[in-house]
Specification:
- By secondary structure, the chain is mainly beta.
- The chain has one domain: Calycin beta-barrel core domain (Lipocalin).
- Helix content is 11%, strand content 54%.
- A ten-stranded antiparallel barrel has the order 1-2-3-4-5-6-7-8-9-10.
- A hairpin with a 5-residue loop joins strand 5 and strand 6.
- The N terminus is likely disordered.
Length: 150
């Protein structure tokens, strides 16, 4: 019982340090992420898939393949929590890192965790029929990708 209480307290503290939530943001507003998205960049085949919203969560998977070899993968989850909407990133099956939804509009979402080394911000947006994402560090340096729906 103590362990569960301790874990719950640590969970709350970690979310509190993530950042302030976007006021009034609801997970239902992120349905535009749903689908299977693909793209290529410098010989790297990229794939990102988002399930439909069920049970208060969107589940995602990202995979990078170069030639015949998978070089990277990540499990993703966006979930409505008591603290607000949170993006959980689990690169290569590592423990999930929380990023709070700090900005949300019709086709754009910004998640932030200022305590994380890199990235500190994860941004998704729709550009016409493309889904784009950007990750940024402390100084705004980052990487950006766009995919088309499969």
């Amino acid at each position: 019982m103590r362990r569960a209480t301790l874990l719950g307290t640590l969970w709350f503290i970690s979310l509190a340090s993530v950042g302030a939530q976007a006021p009034g943001a609801r997970i239902e507003e992120l349905g535009w992420l749903e689908g299977r998205w693909e793209g290529d960049s410098d010989g790297m085949s990229m794939e990102e898939q988002w399930t439909s919203l069920k049970g208060g969560a969107l589940l995602g998977l990202h995979r990078d393949v170069k030639g015949d070899r998978m070089v990277s993968f990540e499990f993703l989850r966006i979930q409505a929590t008591a603290e607000g909407v949170v993006y959980f990133a689990s690169p290569r099956s590592r423990p999930p890192v929380p990023f709070a939804l700090v900005e949300s509009s019709e086709r754009r979402a910004v998640f932030e965790n200022k305590q994380h080394d890199f990235p500190q911000r994860i941004i998704y947006w729709r550009d016409g029929e493309r889904l784009c994402a950007r990750v940024e560090g402390k100084g705004g340096e980052g990487e950006e990708w766009c995919w088309t729906k499969d």
